[in-house]
Amino acid sequence: MTTLFTGYRLGDLTLPNRVVMAPMTRVRAAAGGLATPSMAAYYAQRATAGLIVSEGVQPSVIGQSNPGTPGLHTDEQVAAWRPATEAVHANGGRIFAQLMHGGRVSHPDTTGMQPVGPSAVPAVGDVFTPTGPQAAPMPRALATAEVPEHARSYAQAARRAIDAGFDGVELHGANGYLISQFLSSNANLRNDHYAGSIANRIRFAVEAATATVEAVGAARTGIRLSPGATFWGVEESDVPELYTALLAELARLEVAYVHLEATTDEEVLLTLRRAWPGALVINPVVPMGPKQTGRDDADHWLALGADLISFGRAFIANPDLVERLRGGLPIAPVDESTYYQGGDDGYLTYPAHQYAA
């Protein structure tokens, strides 16, 4: 019987369990998008996960969404990440870098540049800036000739990620960021071959994945998707058909895994499970929703055919989450006020379970 603690072969990696640490923005990077010693300690503390997926890492200057996030587009950033990947490996872990291009979910105060997107349609809501939340600005619509360079930016960052010691990369195709914007039927109002039909709307995602596979190999490439989600005001028409078509292209590329968020009905997710022949990671609850993933959610999805289960917020306050899940130990609550405040408090200060003497 498959459980959370059954090993799994993912690409070229042998995972000791099926627990994945989901990517979570924590805004602890230093100036210049550099990873820090605290970030190395944070990930090393959680190295018992079968796989860690890092916080979103911008593949370019214009791809940065939030202030305080790390990058993988300069030599200095590569060097700064090496102690973190080495610390994870020294503690027996495995780590992929999540490559996240914010697209229209950004601000000139953060990057010094006007955000770009598929169309001149602003995100809905406030975006984070160095001086606090501000209304999402109007993005500049990418010219047709510019689009491929943004697809290639994922591949360029992927090469740097491998150079920095990561075991692979996950393309952030979810949550209203650039790939998600191209998939959208209301953020993507273009009149060229990147919009309109399903084949056109998935084109950017496929180009980004293709370039990344060519750069670092399929076994080192995963992608995260949020079918039907409405983050930052994105809408998607024909969700089952859209994602079935995308999964067919990803299957052709033989990417290492697809990471689905439970942002649509279970029936749709099961349809996508049947459509996807490869490794499937499920994040069983809506990110940042009222509920956190628990053992029951994990067991439910393993029984339905998921291969791996990702846990987000539970990993923040429980660096030893795998042991707690295995032993049925209490899951410590997280202090939400420390998510994005910077510093080590609420980052490195959560203890492992204290057993009675």
Layout of strands and helices, then pairs:
Layout: E1 8-10, E2 13-15, E3 19-21, H1 37-45, E4 51-57, H2 75-90, E5 95-99, H3 108-111, E6 116-117, E7 126-127, E8 134-135, E9 140-141, H4 147-163, E10 168-173, H5 178-183, H6 198-201, H7 203-216, E11 221-225, H8 239-253, E12 257-261, H9 266-275, E13 279-283, H10 295-303, E14 308-311, H11 313-317, H12 321-327
Parallel strand pairs: 3-4, 3-14, 4-5, 5-10, 6-9, 10-11, 11-12, 12-13, 13-14
Antiparallel strand pairs: 1-2, 7-8
Helix pairs in contact: 1-2, 4-7, 7-8, 8-9
Distance between the termini: 34 Å
Query: Helix segment count?
Result: 12
Q: Examine the coordinates and then state which fold CATH places here, giving the name of the CATH topology.
A: TIM Barrel
Secondary structure class reads: alpha/beta
Describe this structure in words.
β7 (126-127) and β8 form a beta hairpin. The protein starts with 7 loop residues before the first strand and ends in a 30-residue tail after the last helix. It contains 12 helices and 14 strands. Strands 3-4-5-10-11-12-13-14 form an 8-stranded parallel beta barrel, surrounded by 4 helices. The chain is of the alpha/beta class and 357 residues long. The mean pLDDT is 97. α1 (37-45) packs parallel to α2 and α7 runs parallel beside α8. The protein has a single domain, classed as TIM Barrel, CATH 3.20.20.
